[in-house]
Specification:
The complex is a heterodimer of chains A (190) and B (289). Chain A has helices at residues 13-29, 49-58, 74-84, 101-104, 154-162; strands spanning 35-36, 65-67, 96-100, 123-127, 136-139, 147-149, 169-174, 177-181, 186-187. Chain A is α/β, with parallel strands linked by helices and 190 residues long. A 6-stranded mixed beta sheet of chain A has the order 1-8-7-4-3-2. In chain A, strands 6-5-9 form a 3-stranded antiparallel beta sheet. In chain A, helix 1 (13-29) packs across helix 2 (49-58). Chain A is globular, with a radius of gyration of 16 Å. With 289 residues, chain B is of the alpha/beta class. Chain B has helices at residues 2-9, 14-18, 27-42, 63-72, 90-103, 151-159, 164-177, 206-209, 282-288, and strands spanning 48-49, 78-83, 106-107, 116-120, 133-137, 188-190, 194-196, 215-220, 225-229, 235-237, 264-268, 275-279. Chain B is globular. The chains are: A alpha/beta (190), B alpha/beta (289). The interface between A and B is large, with 40 and 46 residues.
C-alpha cells in the first residue's frame, strides 16, 4: 500500500499531528461522518494512512496497543514502536486496538471503563473496507437529526451503546478514509 | 491591528518563535490531553481527569482552557479569546498574544471568522456554527463540590446518577428567596445523564449550550479535568415544574448599540451611583454600532 523505506513518517510531526488530531476530533464529534485524510504519511504495508495517523497523534508509552493477527507483523510493530514507543499487549489491557472486524471481537474482552471512571476504556480502530453512509440509522450527540452508517454488526453496537456511560469507542479506517462511532451514538430507529 | 501584532511577535523575530514547540506544549503532553478530549466527547458531560501541566501563567488565568486550546490548534486556525465577553481585557489579550507567539497563528475579534474561541465566563451572542470550537476556562469543574467537598463521594454520586442534592440546593434557593437565585454556573444535565457545571457563565447563556452547532470543550487546569459537549447535544438547565428555569438579564438596553437582547454589564458612571448598561460581548456590540 505504502512504501515503508522512508525512515521518517512525518516531516514536521508537531504540525502534522495537530492536523491528524483535528480530523480525529472532528470525526468523534460528528459520529458517522466520513473524513478524508490526504497527506504524505509513510505507513508500512497493511497499515492504512488513516489508522497510522490516529496512532501517531494519540499513542505513546502510556497506551498499550493490541494488534490483531493480520496487523501483528514485524513491519507494523517496528513502525509503531519507532514512532510512538507504545507497548503491545492483549485485548484486556490495551488502550487502543487495531485490526480487522472479526479479529477484534468480542467486545467483552476489552476494558469498558468503570462506573466511577468510564473514560478508562479502550478505543478500537477497525480496518473496514465498507465505510459508507448507507445502512444503519444513527442518532445522538454530534449528529444533527440523524445519519446513516454501514455498521458491520448493528446489534453489537446497540449493545455497546446500552452500556453508556461505559463502553468502547470506535474509529473505522480504510486507506485515506475514516469515521468514528463513540459509545454515545444511538443505533437504529428512534 | 492584530495582524501587525502577530508580525511583531513572530515573523520578524523568528528566534522568539523557534524557542517553543508549536503551541507551547510538548508533544507527549498534547497526546495525553488529546486522548482525554476524545474520551470527554464520547461521554458528554463526564469530567475526564488529565495530568495538567504548569503553564507560564497563574492558576485562575485559564491554564485549563489554554492547554485544551494548545492541543487542538492547527496552524490554519484563527483564534479568538474573550474574557467575560470582551476581546480587549487583560486575560483575553495575553492569551491571544501567547498563542500568536508560540503557535504563529492568526487571531481575530470577529466571532464569525474564528475557528477556535477560548472563553472565560461567556458564550458569544452571535450564534456559533458547525466546525467552530468553543473552549471554556473552568475554575471548579465539579457541580457538586460546594455541596459535597470529597472527590471520592462526588465521583460515586456521578456514577450512581445521584443528583438529588443538587435539586435540594435549588429548592433551598426557592425557600429562602422565593425563586432560584443561582445566577451563574447554573447546573445543567447533558444528554439526560451527567449533571455538569457550565463554568461561571451567566444563566442567560445556558440555553445557548443546548443543540449548539459548535463543539464545546471545557478545561480546568488546577482541578485537572477536561469535559465536553459535542455539537447537537441535549442540554437542559435543572429546574422544577412549578419553578421553571428562566434565563435572566438586566432590564435595560445597551447604551452603545441599543441592543435589548444581549447580555449587559452594569457600569457605574459617577460617584452618585448612576449607572449605564453596555453589551458584555464587545464584538457583537461593535458590529451593531
Amino acid at each position: 500500500m505504502n512504501s515503508s523505506n522512508n525512515l521518517y513518517a512525518l516531516e514536521n510531526p508537531e504540525i502534522e499531528n495537530a492536523f491528524f488530531f483535528r480530523q480525529a476530533l472532528n470525526a468523534i464529534s460528528n459520529p458517522g461522518k466520513i473524513f478524508d485524510l490526504s497527506c504524505n504519511l509513510n505507513t508500512p504495508n497493511g497499515l492504512s494512512k488513516s489508522a497510522g495517523s490516529l496512532l501517531l497523534c494519540l499513542c505513546d508509552f502510556d497506551t498499550p496497543i493490541f494488534l490483531s493477527e493480520t496487523f501483528n507483523t514485524d513491519e507494523i510493530r517496528k513502525w509503531i514502536t519507532f514512532h510512538t514507543n507504545s507497548n503491545f499487549t492483549e485485548k484486556g489491557n490495551c488502550k487502543f486496538a487495531l485490526g480487522n472486524w472479526e479479529e477484534l471481537l468480542p467486545f467483552e474482552k476489552y476494558q469498558l471503563g468503570t462506573d466511577a471512571y468510564p473514560d478508562r476504556s479502550a478505543t478500537l480502530i477497525i480496518n473496514y473496507e465498507k465505510i459508507s453512509n448507507n445502512g444503519t440509522k444513527l442518532f445522538g450527540p454530534g449528529i444533527k437529526n440523524y445519519t446513516y452508517f454501514n455498521l458491520p454488526d448493528e446489534k453489537k453496537f446497540k449493545n455497546n451503546n446500552s452500556l453508556f456511560p461505559l463502553g468502547l469507542d470506535f474509529f473505522f479506517s480504510y486507506e485515506n478514509k475514516f469515521a468514528a462511532i463513540p459509545r454515545s451514538t444511538r443505533i437504529g430507529e428512534k | 491591528m492584530l495582524k501587525s501584532q502577530k508580525n511583531k511577535y513572530t515573523k520578524e523575530d523568528p528566534l522568539e518563535h523557534d524557542e517553543y514547540n508549536f503551541a507551547y506544549l510538548d508533544e507527549q503532553t498534547k497526546r495525553m490531553i488529546r486522548r482525554a478530549i476524545l474520551k470527554a466527547i464520547a461521554i458528554p458531560g463526564y469530567q475526564v481527569p488529565f495530568s495538567s501541566r504548569e503553564m507560564p501563567m497563574p492558576y485562575g488565568w485559564g491554564t485549563g482552557g489554554v492547554q485544551v486550546t494548545a492541543s487542538c490548534l492547527c496552524p490554519t486556525d484563527t483564534l479568538k479569546v474573550i474574557d467575560q465577553g470582551a476581546d480587549d481585557t487583560t486575560n483575553a489579550v495575553s492569551i491571544r498574544k501567547f498563542f500568536e507567539k508560540t503557535a504563529n497563528i492568526n487571531t481575530t475579534d470577529d466571532t464569525n471568522s474564528a475557528s477556535i474561541i477560548q472563553t472565560r465566563h461567556r458564550i458569544p451572542e452571535e450564534p456559533l456554527k458547525e466546525g467552530q470550537i468553543l473552549i471554556y476556562q473552568v475554575p471548579i469543574p465539579e457541580p457538586l463540590r460546594f455541596l459535597e467537598p470529597r472527590e471520592t463521594e462526588t465521583r460515586i454520586m456521578h456514577a450512581l446518577e445521584e443528583y438529588g442534592l443538587m435539586h435540594v440546593k435549588l429548592y433551598e434557593d426557592i425557600t429562602k428567596h422565593g425563586h432560584i437565585s443561582t445566577a451563574y454556573a447554573y447546573p445543567i444535565k447533558v444528554e439526560e445523564r451527567y449533571v455538569m457545571d457550565p463554568s461561571p457563565i451567566p444563566k442567560f447563556d445556558n440555553p445557548k449550550m443546548h443543540n449548539n452547532e459548535a463543539l464545546q470543550l471545557f478545561g480546568a487546569g488546577r482541578e485537572q479535568r477536561i469535559y465536553a459537549i459535542p455539537p447537537y447535544t441535549k442540554v437542559i438547565s435543572l429546574d422544577f415544574e412549578d419553578y421553571p428555569f428562566e434565563p435572566m438579564k438586566a432590564e435595560a438596553i445597551c447604551s452603545i448599540c441599543g441592543s435589548n437582547s444581549s447580555y449587559l454589564d452594569e457600569i457605574i458612571v459617577n460617584d452618585k451611583g448612576d449607572k449605564n448598561y453596555i453589551c458584555s460581548d464587545t464584538n457583537y456590540c461593535e458590529k451593531r454600532k
